[in-house]
Known about the structure:
The protein is mostly helical. It is 71% helix and 0% strand.
Amino acid sequence: MSSRYHTKSANKTKMAAPSSGGMDYTGNRTMSISDDSGHEFNTIMKLLLSDRRRIRHNVLIPTGLVPYKIKTNEEKMVEATFESCTFKTLMSCVLGFGLGAAIGLFSASVDPNITGTNAEQQTARQVITDMKNKSVAYAKNFAIVGAMFAATECAIESHRGKSDWKNGTLSGAVTGGLIGLRAGVKAGILGAAGFAAFSTIIDHYLR
Length: 207
């Protein structure tokens, strides 16, 4: 009787508290706390040391205390497009065309051949035609100069890998030299020196 009682008590104890890592009363395998932590450690080590680890490229990590939003691929693509030499050249060409048209219109409005006291009597259509021709001529010249300057500066900056005042000076010298070279070597040298000095002064004040 006593031995039967002890046997039933031992069976109840085994069913109530399954051993660590043993079998419970339902017959399922149980995992102890030490086995669980060991499994997590092995998983972390495999991710860190094995070839199956995932490496994320182009992730921007904030370097300051201010929160920084990581840019998406679409934002990076748009930013790369805006910073490309093609976009800069086209924008400079368009802006130069508009600036040249405005300057040509202003110069035509104060032209003594049109508004002077000794000017020949012209019709409104002739005045508009002269203003249009002068505005278009100025616009084309400014567009060419702007496109040449932007393309040269972007090429020099990409080659040097730096963004400083030397890029504007060198691109101004190249642009002025190419424009003045049409009138001769001396004019090309003077044009290069003049454009380089002008670009340096403008870049100094803008920066």
